[in-house]
Amino acid sequence: MNDEELRVHFEELKKELDGKIDDEQLMKELNTYLNEYRVTAEAAKRGIKRKYGADGSSSFMTADTISKKIEELKGTEMNVDITAKAVYVDRKQITVRGTPKTIVSGILGDETGTAPFTIWEGENVNLEKGRVYLFKNAYTKLWNDRVQINLGSRGKVEMAEGVRVDVPERTVAMESTEIKIGDIKEGSGNVTVTGRIISVEERNITVKGEPKIVYSGIMADDSGKIQFSAWNDYGLKEGETVCVKNAYIRAWRGIPQLNLGDKCEVNRVDDSFGEITLSASKKTIADIISIGGGLDLSVTGTIVDLRAGSGLIWRCPECNRSVLNGECTTHGKVEPIADLRMKLILDDGTGAISAMVNRQDTERLTGVTLEAAEGLAKARGDSEMVAKEIAGIMMMKMVTFTGNVLSDDFGPMMIVSKAVIEDIDVTAEAEKLYNEVEAAL
Ligand SMILES: [Zn+2]
Hints:
- The protein is 22% helix and 42% strand.
- With 441 residues, the protein is of the alpha+beta class.
- It folds into four domains: 3-60; 66-170, CATH 2.40.50.140; 175-268, CATH 2.40.50.140; 281-426, CATH 2.40.50.140.
- Helix 2 crosses helix 3.
- The termini are far apart.
- Zinc ion binds next to loops.
């Protein structure tokens, strides 16, 4: 940087710092940042302002953005800059409305703490574990009492060169808490779990161009089951019981997963579970909402609504996604295949979740077959009739649904694998209610 440029930045800073630092010291600081740390002029100015107490004072906010330490994040920030070290980085392909998308997620850490992050436009983002980055125009959300840092299309991530961030070891390797599998949720962090290996398989994957074997499967205890991935070969075998120390919990669409990474310790232990019932874990909807999702859960509740997209729908023969007017967003004009499904809202008094019921169960529960639905739609010239017919049959029915629960922006959704209509004894229920009312008087 030439002297003239330096002078411009100097004058600007001097004005903003308003006497908090003398000219000589300011010039020295600028020189250190620009020529020693070799950061951008913007980063240098931010660093100096933060150092001399200008941070947090409204006159130093630029474009409504402020810089915060991780500990200061509240989960409600709309526009915040965060300089922190990438403690853990992961890339995933997801599909949003039929379009493949890359997201980069992981854990950020600074002197004050750690927080998970997600970069939603991750195509051209290459973060390296252990390096310090500036997350510009990030926003934050609270999820299970933990702050999540998000970077959307307005945000930007850049390398914070020369900036040193010391993440205390204790926050990276957070104390490992002993936990039952059924209590594990996103944000549980570092855990110690004892469980039986129900299944395990080897998968060959590629990490940074290198072939790697990952051992994944299902582990269970008497409170529930969870998917695990082991990144080293611990010789895990079906049927044995292990105590896993320092495993890390990450969630994919709300479903917590147990990761056995480099810091993990695996020991064979005596199995104290006896018979583990592999049937689904019974949950209340409030439990499911607080955990965010999970494998093979079971809830009983009342059907209170049938959402749009229920009844007779059409799918693309290529990709199976539902299509409107015979037009697939990926495959264009197609000859669609008719299908039947229900998107129900189930309420159990503790909360409500969505539940997706496939054709087979829809036919069985409603008695309306796909053939009949097509016939009805044709006869009335309106496929909405099918949804109305189904709603008439299903509304206010009490059901027990079992399946995996995923979470997205619309909240938790169960993909129902087993659906049972509960026969309620109306007289007994009425009597129970009457007794409760009477007892309350
Ligand atoms: Zn398609």
